[in-house]
Write a structure and sequence with these properties.
By secondary structure, the chain is an alpha+beta fold. About 20% of the residues lie in helices and about 35% in strands. The strands form three sheets. It has a four-stranded mixed sheet with strand order 4-1-7-6, sandwiched between helices. The protein has a three-stranded antiparallel sheet with strand order 2-3-9, with no helix packed on it.
Length: about 130
């Protein structure tokens, strides 16, 4: 039997060698902001909805660029589920702030890598290798 696939889209925002991460209410793990696709949403539709819901900003779709797609075993999910995370950069309008579903925002350096799930760690590794993450 094939493992469950959790299909997600994430917004990669790096400033000053640090990446924006969010911790949902009721969880002790930080994630790259974004979330699960609903129905037949495209990557960009999912990204726009999730980032507005989580961070109260509007992404500029004209500036959106696919960074990479990563897959890794989901942590804390029984049965060996796999998370697929399609990552995008994009400019935004508004002021970044945690919504009601987000407990905390933080800017992480590579040293914070152990605080994020395995699929996010793959992005951290690539950003570090590319000189973007300190």
């Amino acid at each position: 039997m094939a493992a469950e696939l959790i299909d997600t889209v994430a917004w990669v925002r790096v400033e000053g060698g640090r990446i924006l991460c969010a911790r949902p209410r009721g969880k002790d793990v930080f994630y790259i902001p974004g979330g699960k696709r609903e129905g037949a949403e495209s990557d960009l539709e999912t990204l726009l909805r999730e980032i507005e819901e989580e961070l109260t900003v509007v992404l500029d779709t004209a500036s959106a660029r696919h960074v990479a797609t990563y897959e890794a075993e989901a942590s804390g999910v029984p049965g060996g589920a796999v998370v697929r995370m399609s990552c995008y950069t994009a400019e935004y309008r508004g002021t970044l702030s945690a919504s009601s579903e987000i407990a905390e925002l933080a800017w992480f350096s590579y040293a914070h890598r152990p605080l994020v799930p395995p699929v996010d760690q793959l992005l951290f590794d690539d950003l570090r290798a590319g000189g973007e993450l300190t």
